[in-house]
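Input chain follows. Return structure tokens only.
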Amino acid sequence: MWVRAGSAYENDNEAGIAHVFEHMLFKGTKKRGVGGIAKEVDEAGGYINAYTSIDMTVYHLAIASRYFDTGLDIISDAIQNSSFDPEELKKEESVILEELKMGKDEPSSRAYEELFATAYEKHSYRRPIIGYEETVKSLTREHILNFYKQWYVPNNMVFVVVGDFKAEEALKKIKNSFADFKSSPLPEINIPVEPVQMHIRSKISYDEIKEANLNFAFHIPALNHEDIPVLDIISVILGQGESSRLYKKIKSDLNLVNSISSYSMTPKYPGLFLAGAALEKEKIKEAILPILEEVYLLKTKEVTSEELEKAKLILESDFVYDRETVQGEAKKLGYFETIAGGLDFEEKYIAAIKNVTTADIKKVAEKYFNNSNLTATVLAPQAGGKDIFPQEIIALALNAEKKVQEIPLEQTASTKPDDITKRILPNGITLLIKEDHEMPIVAINAVFLAGTRFEPENKDGISSFTSEMLTKGTVIRNADDIAKEVESIAGSLQSFSGKDSFGIKAKLLSRFLDNGFNLISDIILNPSFDESEFEKKKKEILLAIKNQDDDLTHLVSNLFNQLLYQKHPYSRDVLGTKESISSIKKEDLLEFYKKFAVPENLVFTVVGDVKTENVSGKIENAFRNLKKETFSMPEISDPSPLETNKSSIIYRDKKQAHILLGFLGVDNHDPDRYALEVLSNILSGQGGRLFIELRDKQSLAYSVTSINQIRMDKGVFAAYIGTSPEKIDKAIEGIKNELIKLTQEKVGDEELERTKKSMIGNFEIGLQKRAALASEIAFSERYGLGFDSYKKYAERISAVTSEDILNVAKKYIDFNHYALAIIRPEKGSSND
């Protein structure tokens, strides 16, 4: 259900009410009490959630088609009959205040909040969607009801249903469900018009962070303006992907930033063209000039035809990928009808994209990319490097525009088989192929056993380092070549490395399959580990290690793993440490790669719009020169159980505390894995015990969940909560109480069945995308579970009994052998 009421429709005194309302809509009706909606969705194996944006609020439900009536009744009941209980409102406001604190602690969120507050002086887009602490606290049930009566009326809502059903029957049911829901006049919309910006705006802020955020914004028109397709193409050319201008010049060539991108934000009302970078504080001044030069060069130098065609293909392919899932299709249709002006938006937009010329790009760039329309903001670390001042940004921006103006202007002139084919190639590679011709999409995975588990002593992070280097050049392609080739076929290609494996994953349109195979086989067979790319990547990893200190959830996870796993490799960070990465040489990467990238250790999966025999021959031919070689898997001892409880606290000058409490869990082959997975799901999710007890009832947190990580060796079973520092003791006590309950009494039949249905439904929904299925079968095969183990998931989860839950709870929840990690503000600080 899409509602044309986002944060832009609020007044200053009620900032955040649309978001508060979104939280409250699922908090009970006359028919369904608090938690009842989430419970019923879980019972049907579905998924329900909502989000608020600047222009709209969206409530979305994914459920098996056989439960269509249930899903429709839940949505119609919530929309028409929500209780908006004042006590629940107080609790939910506490939850939202925790969410607000979390955003303040997240540097990129805060950076964007300050950018919008600076770029917009009058328009409602200047306010954060979540609102402010004082406005959220001030909202009453009366405010909520008034907001509901004003905006939640049929003539301001769009109901989208996509899936396996008969349209005529569904329409009748929908009409009946909303028969008593009457239209009414909408209030006058008084969103302030943003005055034309006349000069550069800049703002500098500082905080206790490691990495700086540099952001630029230019005012642009609203979504339906004729210039928007051109600006979208510019955003791709300028800052999307590794072959984009900003990435290549500012990151790859000049090494001034850790990451950089651009984006054309085109809401219902006039939006912003954004360019942003994460970088070190000492590089801010040096980066401003070349970034703005790249933007302003679009006014004087035409883009190449290759750049233009690649951008068009990427934008067009986005619509194809959206159609892969019912959620993607529903989201697209809802957006078209609610914001874009009608269901024919896609057809019109693609036609406009195809007609864009290089001359159009210059013309549009000249219109919007100038200093009088520029806003620049910086969020920088307090420590280290020289501070920067607003007047310095202004001077650098003026210099950039002047330099570009001095450049002479250029003259413009199916069916869906269920079977997976498995073949062992002569050299030992395991090949898995699944045909699916419903969409012209192909997903490819190449998985090797490796990862943190297999890293040599004192070489922490070498697996991740090695995988990062795979896309940075081969014998015949450099890093730029690879990036350009991927983007020229509107695809995606990434290397990955985790605790137990590393490899390559890719997604592309099926008409570019040969290009994809050629590129992937070259990357696997002929990585160059180029010396200059090696040194560049080493610096990037060292910066990432330093800057991940800003990510408090990552920090608490690392601390927890160190406590729980002690000397086992799982105790290490996937990225490694400053000391280990600094010591690694290029030769170490080559040795590691040669040891693990052997045919017997490779599972290669292809899922999508392919012909099995054709693909099998292509892959065998591509890897024919990879000689058969025996893979000897190093023996690693299981993690040792803790002899006693282990706890540790790290202090940070932040608003929130982050807590992780847990135990050793199960490995991939442990028969307890399914029962423990069900137990974890009983605790997690919106209908889970932790959420209901600690968030809904006690308002201790915005974010609380259980964690069940299953690995080659014993994994993790834990509970996480983010809370205010003054609530730490209550939060830990609350988690322990919920865990203890599971060891003392059996789970009720209703709760157990609901949880199992939810798990099975979510698992099936998650496998809609070809990329998800390609990953699932690749990892299952490589970890020795069998490529078809996903087909047995529903059966194995369904077989779990309440007795099984009680047994695994007693076995794994052991309060004499747990790890407790806490990240919190200093006691007595202003945040305590």
